[in-house]
From TrEMBL:
It is found in: Endoplasmic reticulum membrane; Mitochondrion membrane. PROSITE patterns: CARD. This is Caspase recruitment domain-containing protein 19. The chain crosses the membrane at residues 120-138. InterPro entries: CARD (IPR001315), CARD19 (IPR043574), CARD_BinCARD (IPR042146), DEATH-like_dom_sf (IPR011029). GO terms for cellular component: endoplasmic reticulum membrane; mitochondrial membrane. Associates with BCL10 by CARD-CARD interaction. The keyword Endoplasmic reticulum applies. Keywords: Disulfide bond, Endoplasmic reticulum, Membrane, Mitochondrion, Transmembrane, Transmembrane helix.
Length: 179
């Protein structure tokens, strides 16, 4: 979509009351007059900055003038609007149309939310069930020696649990192995 068509689409939004104030419009006109490439000549800038005319009329005339000049002039207007009134620039109807996603495109933020919408409690519940099933399978398997392997694991546990707790667990395992 060309900038001229976008400007035509946004014209009503921009010229409606209290969207742009006098100072912002003057800054935009001065930027279009002074920044390279010069979009407005000195005479045109003075005409659009005339304080005798209403702001609505000056802004409407400016937008129509830019549309007649071509796509490059309209693009520079959008650049000046973005610099001087960024919030208004982001709220333009043509920007909202450009921001709407392609219906065939996958929205990764939404997809990520859909995968993680159950929260940490669900994760802990699933992890507990999986750990319980693994422990049950490990203990019920007749080919493994649970006590010997548990002793080896607990031998490396001073990092994870305290030395006193490890000694108590080792004594408990020795008592179980004697019975």
């Amino acid at each position: 979509q060309s900038y001229c068509h976008r400007l035509q689409h946004d014209m009503y939004f921009l010229t409606s009351t209290s969207r742009l104030n006098e100072q912002v419009v003057d800054k935009i006109i001065l930027q279009l007059n002074r920044v390279y490439p010069q979009i407005l000549t000195n005479e045109e800038a003075e005409k659009f900055r005339n304080p005798r005319a209403s702001l609505h009329t000056r802004l409407s005339d400016l937008l129509k003038h830019l549309q007649k000049k071509g796509d490059r002039h309209c693009q520079e207007f959008y650049r000046a609007l973005q610099i001087n009134a960024e919030q208004l620039f982001n709220d333009l109807p043509s920007r909202k149309i450009l921001k709407t996603p392609d219906p065939t495109e996958i929205d990764t933020d939404k997809e990520q939310y859909m995968l993680n919408d159950r929260g940490p409690v669900f994760f802990l519940a699933c992890f507990s069930v999986a750990a319980g099933l693994a422990l049950f399978w490990y203990c019920c398997n007749s080919e493994t020696q649970v006590i010997g392997r548990a002793r080896r694991i607990l031998g490396f546990s001073p990092i994870i649990i305290g030395r006193h707790v490890r000694n108590i667990c080792m004594l408990y395992l020795e008592d179980i192995s004697r019975n």
